[in-house]
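The following record pairs a protein chain with its ligand, zinc ion.
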Amino acid sequence: MIEMKGMFEEEIGLFLEWLVRHNRYVAFEGAQVVSQGGIGHVSVPQNHGPVYQGRRILTVGASYRIPKVDLGNACCPHFVTGEITTGAEDIVYDGVPVVMVGDMGKHWPGCGTATVFVTEGWRRIPSPVDRWDFASHEGQGGFTINAGDDPDSLDLPGKPKAPAMPPQGIFSIRAGDDPNDISVPVELLKSGFRQSDDG
Ligand SMILES: [Zn+2]
């Protein structure tokens, strides 16, 4: 267990670089988070965690916001707010786990899986090829988002579908057809298209 409280700034810098060499990227306030159907950021400023180069390193409990989540559900689109809920098991600040790229958060309103991944950290910017597997969490969905995706263009669960082709109608009239060439079924001509008003 590494306790960051009490580290000097120079020590923190060396420690961050050491972690990068082990493919671990410490997250700072302002870091990007990705949810199903939305992209947001950890709030600035945070009030807990070590400060390096004027920015706080995140610890579990950090708050984030996503201005627009759109999963195509009845509630969407909307703003959500949440908290980072997972952190390093072996690195803490004042006993609270430090947050790394890949850690997760939980938000309200709970649309979709209502979870995020932290996608940005020290020496690690979000990449269009990042893939975040929401399906392995919350037992919901089977959906993966790429960090570079436009949430509006994703085929998200519950997204309204384009209307299906019009049902094969009684008439197959298209714009530009000559009405005189349309063959109308005889039974429709007999009923005159009107609702029956019998009774
Ligand atoms: Zn929603």
